[in-house]
Amino acid sequence: MNFIIDAEKMNSENLFKASVYLDACFILAYLDKTDSRKLDVADALDVWAENEVRLGYSNHTFTEVTNRLFQMLVLGSLQVYHEKKQLLNNTRNGIDKLSDEDRRKLINLDSARYLYRVAKDEDILRFYNREVSANVGELIKRAKEDQNKRYLLDVYYHLALRIFNEFIRKMREELEFEVELLSDGFEENELAKVHMQLTQLDSTDSVHLAIARMNEFDYLATLDSDFVHDYYSNVDGLAMKIIKVA
After folding, report:
1. How far is Cα 188 from Cα 186, in angstroms, rounded to an integer?
2. Is the domain of 87 the same as that of 142?
3. What is the rounded CA–CA span in Å between residue 16 and residue 212?
4. Which end of the chain has fewer CB within 10 Å, C or N?
5. pLDDT for residue 62
6. Residue 83 sits in the same domain as residue 130
7. Please, what is the Cα angle at 111 between 108 and 116, to 5 degrees?
8. What 3-state DSSP class applies to 199?
């Protein structure tokens, strides 16, 4: 598996002016300050910036990242509302008594209150070790049924997009990367099917690998352990390398 390298081996590579495709889990770890892998991802980005690496992502990356961000924002908002609902509903200016972190996660009181009510009414909300859980897709579908209230969902969509756009802006303006949105079409789709058949990668990972290969990128950066397996020696002609950052 000499085409799969870890962060330590990456540092011995000639990375100057190389191209690195980012998959969704790499970006999500960077954006999540509670993720233990965030520092490893940030360190890798610093090394790449010094070497003038070109970064790439795709519409599939965008879709995965923003969808997961949206879910995390909704669940975080519900969690704070569930834990603090007595304070928020029965105390004057209760929202002002929240910690800065809780206010950030709540996002919007009216939006959280509405989603919480829908989740309870539709029996969508679940609890595990005091953690709120819900089928976010089903919850949002039900919440949209009230045409007079669905505007309350805007804050979650807008914030998910803003976080993603801010990540791209930071890569370009602060770390001074060239960042490219890669094309994906018929050939990438066909190659992804081949990856699924030969390597047992799921469709998502197969598509990311296909896009990186068809766009002739030097590396694919991931945190996904699915790539680290002898079975992937079945991939013929793999000129690029996969960096398992953490």
Report:
1. 6
2. yes
3. 18
4. N
5. 97
6. yes
7. 120
8. helix
CA 35 to CA 38: how far, in whole Å?
6
Q: What are phi and psi of 132, to 5 degrees?
A: -75, 135
3-state helix, strand, coil in the chain (%, to 5): 60, 10, 30
Six-digit token string for 78: 């519900």
Encoded amino acid at 81, one letter:
Y
pLDDT at 151 > cutoff 90: yes
Q: What is the DSSP string of 108-168?
A: -HHHHHHHHHHHHHTT--EEETTEEE--HHHHHHHHTT-TTTGGGGHHHHHHHHHHHHHHH
Partners of 131 in beta bridges: 128
User: CB–CB of 22/55 below 8 Å?
Assistant: yes
Mean model confidence pLDDT for the chain = 91
Residue 106 and residue 91 in one domain: yes
Q: pLDDT digits over 12-69, tens only?
A: 899 999 999 999 999 999 999 999 999 999 999 999 999 999 999 999 999 999 999 9
